[in-house]
Design goal:
The chain is 67% helix and 3% strand. The chain has helices at residues 21-30, 43-58, 61-76, 84-95, 102-114, 120-128, 133-142, 146-153, 160-171, 177-189, 191-197, 199-209, 213-220, 226-246, 256-271, 278-292, 297-305, 309-317, 328-332, 341-363, 371-393, 403-436, 443-476, 485-496, 498-509, 511-522, 537-542; strands at 2-5, 10-12, 18-20, 325-326, 400-401.
Length: 558
């Protein structure tokens, strides 16, 4: 047999084609029990030593790893005596090379399993810098250094799947009490880091193997540290509740107080910065509603997050008695923080439409309107003030009413609504009857007064349709377990545009104002212009000031 080129891992046997080193060594291992190698001069042993010396000279990771696997195979089958010195030199030469594949590291692990006399501590030092995870983890297992084993897997670059798989198998293995305690404590200390690697995998690990973690976390979390814990572990806790829901479990730990605390953290995390859509939060609440509806924390979090009307209503409906209620705007909008683009549109629209109404009242109102002109001016001014106040104070911050104040608040708002509606209906009916019975009044004047009554009625219905009815539903129906979700979804839109619609109704129903707006839009001059119109002067002079003062009931809710 003639060696041709060991550096290129190629051999040539006399009369045969050239073959790779791995093929050559495989042939030797297969034929190790042949009579050729069983002679008294120990040919197989000498061949192994020769291959080892040549491998050390080449300093090739591939050749060295193939040699180590070759020796491990022969020693495992008792074909040769252990060449401990050559093996140690081969391992050291291999580990001093800059980069190794997992297969090359595995070759070192295989030879350590079968060859005695290997300096494990030296191999461990050489495998630590740079880190050879496969080799280090094998040595740590042999030495039962399980904390070091896990620390090894968490050293960058982290193999996430391997770590969670190894940890789960380790925690169900046969460990002593001291080993198990030390391992669990180490994993608990690294939970925050694990959450950043994979929240679902961390949740599964904690739920399956670290049941005491939740109580420990609650005990260590101070009020000041709550936000930090929520940001780092919130997703993992939410995943834990999702996992338990999929398993059909109705608890996380079995301790009601701990479960409630953990769910509050998970829900607050989901509500923060829009991490979860309202539909996702509702889906979570539908299963865990008894935990979420127990206190005000989830309710306040849902309301404060913005666009969480479905979750808010569900939490209100889920309470046996709704002893806590948020301020009306909180229950329906609940957003805090910086104004959105939609908020800007509402405010601009409210100021523009009501300013336009004031302009029309000032320059396009006929004299026979009398006191109604001043009343319209007051309403438009108040609507502008409401819009500006909303822009300045952003009144959607939560305010809680505890036990007796809830009932008092309900009674107060219900009384205002009923009184306003009763007054409006009474005066509206009396005014209508008075106009119809006005026998001495001309037909033309009666028609004008009816139109004014229609405008007043429409303007009165705006706050009822856009403010009172939605708020009445949200405040009064949830304590009785009645669904108001669809109404709640529409309420914020209706309420926020209330000042706009108030002005639009008058601009639309009053013919003079409608024509004035049309003229300004199309920039029409001359005869199409509506103002202190001369076309109506004859009729205006023949008409006395109206004998009625139109009734209008409007309550502005900030």
């Amino acid at each position: 047999m003639q060696h041709r080129c060991l550096g290129d891992t190629q051999f040539e046997t006399r009369g045969y084609k050239s073959c790779s080193l791995s093929q050559f060594l495989h042939v030797v291992c297969t034929c190790a029990d042949a009579q050729l190698f069983q002679s008294e001069d120990n040919r197989l042993q000498r061949l192994t030593e020769i291959v080892g010396m040549l491998s050390l000279e080449c300093k090739s990771a591939t050749i060295l790893s193939e040699y180590l696997k070759f020796v491990a195979n022969l020693v495992a089958t008792d074909r040769i005596l252990t060449p401990a010195e050559t093996v140690n030199q081969g391992i050291e030469a291999l580990l001093r090379l800059p980069a190794l594949t997992q297969g090359e590291e595995q070759a070192v692990v295989e030879v350590m399993r079968y060859v005695t006399g290997i300096d494990m501590e030296r191999v461990l030092r050489l495998s630590s810098r740079p880190l050879r995870v496969t080799i280090c983890s094998h040595i740590y297992r042999l030495q039962r250094r399980f904390v070091d084993l896990l620390r090894c897997y968490l050293t960058p670059p982290v193999n996430t799947d391997s770590f969670f798989d190894v940890t789960a198998r380790l925690l169900v293995s046969d460990l002593t009490r001291e080993e198990r305690t030390a391992t669990e404590e180490y994993v608990k200390e690294r939970i925050e880091d694990l959450c950043s690697l994979s929240a679902p995998a961390t949740a599964a690990l904690v739920v399956e193997h670290l049941g005491t973690y939740w109580a420990d976390l609650r005990r260590k979390t101070t009020p000041d540290a709550r936000r930090g814990v929520r940001q780092k572990c919130g997703e993992m806790i939410a995943e834990a509740f999702r996992l338990q829901r999929e398993r059909g479990e109705c608890f996380l730990t079995g301790d009601e107080e701990v479960d409630e605390w953990a769910f509050e953290l998970a829900f607050e995390w989901g509500c923060e910065e829009g991490r979860r859509q309202d539909a996702e939060m509702k889906s979570l609440l539908l299963y865990w509603l008894p935990l979420g509806a127990k206190t005000d924390i989830c309710l306040n979090a849902a309301a404060a997050s913005g666009c969480r009307t479905g979750s808010v209503v569900l939490l209100l409906e889920g309470r046996p008695v709704a002893w806590t209620v948020t301020r009306l705007s909180l229950s329906l909008a609940g957003a805090r923080g910086e104004p959105t683009a939609q908020d800007g549109v509402k405010r601009v629209a409210g100021v523009v439409t009501n300013s336009l109404l004031l302009y029309c009242i000032r320059f396009h109102t006929r004299t026979f309107l009398g006191a109604y002109k001043e009343l319209l001016s007051i309403f438009a001014t108040v609507d502008i003030m409401l819009t500006l106040i909303h822009a300045i104070v952003n009144p959607r911050e939560g305010h809680e009413y505890e036990d007796p104040w809830y009932i008092l608040t309900i009674v107060l708002f219900d009384s205002i609504m009923v009184l306003s509606l009763t007054t409006a209906l009474t005066y509206g009916t009396l005014t209508f009857v008075g106009i119809r019975r006005g026998i001495t009044v001309s037909t033309n004047k009666k028609s004008i007064e009816l139109k004014l009554l229609v405008a007043v009625t429409a303007q009165t219905l705006v706050p009822f349709g856009f403010v009172y009815i939605p708020y009445f539903s949200v405040l009064n129906l949830p304590p009785f377990g009645l669904p108001v979700e669809q109404m709640a979804d529409l309420t914020m839109f209706l309420t926020s545009y209330f000042p706009v619609w108030d002005a639009v109704v008058i601009l639309t129903l009053m013919a003079d104002y409608r024509r004035a707006v049309w003229t300004m839009v199309w920039r029409r001059k001359g005869s199409s212009e509506v103002g202190p119109s001369t076309r109506m002067s004859t009729m205006m002079t023949t008409m006395a000031p109206t004998s009625i003062v139109p009734s209008h009931t409007q309550v502005a809710t900030i």
